[in-house]
Amino acid sequence: MADVRLRPKGRVARRRAASWGVLLAAWLPVGAHAGRPATVPDGVRPVAAPWDAPERYARWAEAHGRPGATLPCVTIVAPLLRVCAQVRQGRQQRWVDSRDLDTWGLPWTEVVAALRERAAAHARDGGRYVTIAGMEDARYWLAADGTGWEAAAFLAPEPLARHLGAAPLFVAAPNVGVTVAWAGRQRADVDVAMAVGVAEMVEQQALPVAADVLAWVDGAWVRWGRAVRRGGGWSAPETQDAAPADRSGVDGAEGDRTPDL
Fold first, then answer.
1. Alpha carbon distance 232, 47 (integer Å)
2. 145 pLDDT band (50/70/90 cuts)?
């Protein structure tokens, strides 16, 4: 896939561990304002995260003097991908955890509702069309410019689906802060090329999220498939999109501040 700079494969594992450490360490408190109604701060953004992000965060919190702090997330498709939240403070960006919710006086469900509403307005922010390498007549949508709304499509897929004329909409998050999307099932060669490109990015990036391609079908996210490396090449994705995924853990119960592990 063109136009997304890939990192060399050497020392990728060490870079991944170090990069997650830096991302988690960027923690600065955001205080509530006494006497004001509880609202979700403007700097809060949705972030696509790997399925084990809450577990990683719990370990980090325990080791850095924040025992008991949990990372609340929205289940997009289990056990593949979640959307959590980060908050921007100047040039800093860090994860929103359960202690932030306590400080703000907000349940996680209200944060998610606010993010869904804002995501609908920002679904196309920071995105652009990119031509698929070697396929001059085919292109995909890339959101990776650091606006903080790269994962908006996972919370509000309909605006982007309409923009791309996609039914279904295929979306993947190979890396934190990188989302790719395209109109699925229109050309099999495009679907395969994109799946392989996503898998290659996951192998080479420092902050990988998921190699699986998801599809927005009939109002629900489902797993479409993923390319698998076999020998020296890639196999065509084995698809699985006949039924909607289990969405029972999408937002959690009202006031729930514990991530669904």
1. 33
2. confident
